[in-house]
Amino acid sequence: MMTRDVHLEAKGFLDSLKFKPGDFGSVALVSGQKHRAKLCLERIENPVKNFSFLGYNFWTGTYKGKKVTVGNGGYYAPDTAFITEMLCAGGVDRLIRLGSCGALRKDISVGDYILATDIIRGDGVSRYYVDDDYVSEVDRFLSSRIEKVFSKGSRVHCGGVWTTDALFKETKEIVNSYINKGAISVDMVTSAFVTVSNVYKKKASAILAVSDNLITGEKGFSDARFFAAESKMCELGFELI
Q: Pairing relation of β-strands 66-72 and 113-122?
C-alpha cells in the first residue's frame, strides 16, 4: 500500500524542471491551442522559456515593461488541471484563459465571444479538488475589465460556461439539462481552470471565442470569423495587462 501522502506535487514537479521562484510573471495569458499561445508569445519582449513538458510550453517576458507569462495550458479538463496547478504553484496570481467554446443560444454567432460569469462543472477532474456542491467562481473585477476591453467592436455574451469531458456525447438530453442550469456555452477546459485557481486562491477569468453553435447546428471550426476572433482575442488580452 502507498504510505506517502501524495506521489507528485506541482511545486516539486516545477523544481524538477529547473524552475525557480520568480520565473513566472504575476499574470498569465493561458491558451489551449498552440497557435494562440504562439500569437501571444510574439507580443512579449525578451521571452524566456519557463518549461516544456508533454507538449505544453510556457514563456515569460515583458509587455510594456510588465512581466507576463504566456503558453498553452491544456486542451481538456485533465491536462488543464495539472498545468493550471503548476502555474499557481509557480507564483502566478492572475490567470486569464483565452479559449474557445460552442454556443448554446440561437443569437450567439461564430466569432462572438463568451465571457464566463458562472462555471457549471460537468468535468471529472475538478471532483478531485473540490466537493460536488462546490461553486467555482471567476474573479468579478477581472471579468468586468475583460468585458470592457472586449466589448469595443466585438459581441460579448456573458453567462454560464458548462465544461464537459465527452465531445461526442453532447446529446440534446444532456445539453438541454445544462442549459436549464444556466449554461450559454460549452467547452472542455474552463471548469478545471477556474476550480484549480480557486483552490490556490488565485484570480481567474475566461474569455472564449465561439467556434460552433449546438442549437443552430452551425460549425465554424474552419470559419474565417472564428480565426479572426482568435487572433483578436490574443491582441485584446494584452490590453488587459
A: unpaired
